[in-house]
Structure formats: structure tokens, C-alpha cells
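Write out the 3D structure for:
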Amino acid sequence: MRKTHYSKGWARFCGWCLKAMGWTAVGGPMPEPKAIVLGVPHTSMKDFIVSYFFYTSFGEVAHTMIKKELFFWPLGPVLRSCGCIPVDRSNATTLVKSLIGEMEKDETFKLAIAPEGTRKPVKRWKAGALMIANETGVPLYAGYFDYGTRRISCGEKFPLTGDIKADMKRLQEYYESLHLTARHPKDYITH
């Protein structure tokens, strides 16, 4: 069973760090015991730090996938303690099946995913989060971090139809309508 909560002291400290960095939390954590939250736009490693402070400030763990190459000593144990899951990006199908298994076996499992799949500019987002949500029946939240307003949120619950291609198109259109500013704006493409 994976870690699901942090101590109140650590949560308060992370909330303080978020405010000290000039960020404002909009709303609270996802209320369901199992859920997926998207982190958009993802153009910098700093996105992880801001997101970590945000979600941890509620005392909860939002697991996130990070390429396995970063899990070397001494960084690996630190990443694991932050809820990070090492992933092999060479086989997307195996990765999605593995995450579906994790989501199904644990009673509480919050998963944070960047649909871009990389910090580089991409026009075609990865559909893994939608596939996991459809397969497991967990809700999907359209989370965001906006460097223009310094606001971060789990966002709204995003309704899925089961048509991955159509849902992805709607999702990217939704994010485009938010007019978010990425840390590196040139690297953020909605569609």
C-alpha cells in the first residue's frame, strides 16, 4: 500500500512554501478516495515543486510519474518519499496497464499526470490518463498551474464519454479556453 497522507506539520510547511513562492491555491484536494488530476501546462521541472507544495498542503499525497532515470542515489529515495513513481517511458501500453492495476488494488490512490508527457512542446497529448480513468471509473480533474496569475488548482471534474479521441479534443479545447501561462510559454501548445 502506498503512502496516502502527510503529517499536519509537513502540510502546514508546504502550504507556507507555496505562499512564500507567491502562489495561491484555488479550491481544495480531490474529494474522492481515488482520482486522477491533470497538471497543465507542464513546461518546467518547477511545475512538480509547485504542484507538490500545493497538494501536500492539504496533507494528501498525489502520486506522479517520473522517468526512471531520475531514481538514482540520493535523489531516488527523496522522489519516492514525495509520492513519485518511477516509469519506463519506452512502453506506454505496459505503463498504462500497470497504473490501472495500482489504481484498482489500492483503496486510496490519487494520481497526478501531465498529459503532454514531456516538458517540450507537443501538439498531441498522451491519452493515458483518459484511458486509466475510463478503465477504472475514477474521476478525472482538469488541474492547472498558471504562472501568469500564480494560481494553482485541481480544477473541475472533467466528464468523460468513453470516446478517447473526442474527449481529448474537448479537453485541449477546455484548457485553451483557460488562457493559462506556462513557465516557458513557447513550450505550451494546447492543440
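The first helix runs from residue 8 to 20.
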